[in-house]
User: Fold this.
Amino acid sequence: MKGKFPFPHWILKTPVQVFRTELSENGEPVEELIFDGLACYDEKMRQKLDKERRLVTLSGKVIIKDDILPGKLIEGFVRVGGTDRIIFSASRPQHPDGSVFSTELELA
Assistant:
């Protein structure tokens, strides 16, 4: 069974901006806009353990069609409705043929 699942475009209703944060040569944070468009935003609060086994409360999840930053790590923040939320984790679910279905960002 090879092929691609159709992405449900009707769930993309919330305008979001995704910023990637990197450190410059001077050690200052530099923000780069990597996505500006519609996404599926879920405000459901969740609790998850981080790497150090501490309990972290997540403030929501953003699902964006396709891969917004191919081959690179996504770190930074998401601006939803004028509020900045830090990216806790990012995942890229795949189609059966190996291509990326969506980008899912969990927000702290």
